[in-house]
Amino acid sequence: MKISVFCGVSVDGFLARPDHSLDFLDAGEQEPHGFDEFYGSVDVIVIGRKTFEVVLTFGGWPYGKKPVVVLSSGVFNFSSVKGGVVEQMSGEPAEIVAKLKDRGFKHAYVDGGITIQRFLAAGLVDRMVITRVPILIGAGIPLFGPAPRDISLRHVATRCYKGGLVQSEYELDRDLRTDGVR
């Protein structure tokens, strides 16, 4: 199963402000930067509870009928999601991936600060596309956190957009993986 991250960050490396708001991601002139194509390639979305709570503030369900798995160990009410396919799972990242793979999913989009960090630390991420937005916000929720070891990346491409976005794509070094769920 392929696991991908596609995210926007401030130049100083934050996914969101301390209050979890994402308003800065709209800084500068925006133009298509590959998200729609990426989104079309995934068959399941895996997000953390806090990210899910932020998504609920968007005013509409952005994922359509694509299955969304919310990671949380507590009981969660999904009644506010209208028209979406949402379920809850808990466990270690390798267990989550194994469950999704057993259900026939082929490509997961992992999103949310802690969720991304946990999947990276577990050696489960295959690809990362990180788009830097031309703004410094000074504090917030970081994309990266402590890692149990170095995580080797192979640079695939960097693209610059006229509105100031700079997007880098990486593949993770498969030689360092021992998760057994590929």
Automatic annotation (TrEMBL):
Molecular functions (GO terms): 5-amino-6-(5-phosphoribosylamino)uracil reductase activity
Record-linked InterPro entries: DHFR-like_dom_sf, RibDG_C, Riboflavin_Biosynth_HTPR
Residue ranges of every copy of the Bacterial bifunctional deaminase-reductase C-terminal domain listed in the record: 3-158
GO annotation, biological process: riboflavin biosynthetic process
Stored SUPFAM superfamilies: Dihydrofolate reductase-like
Origin superkingdom: Bacteria
Cross-referenced Pfam families: RibD_C
Protein known as: Dihydrofolate reductase
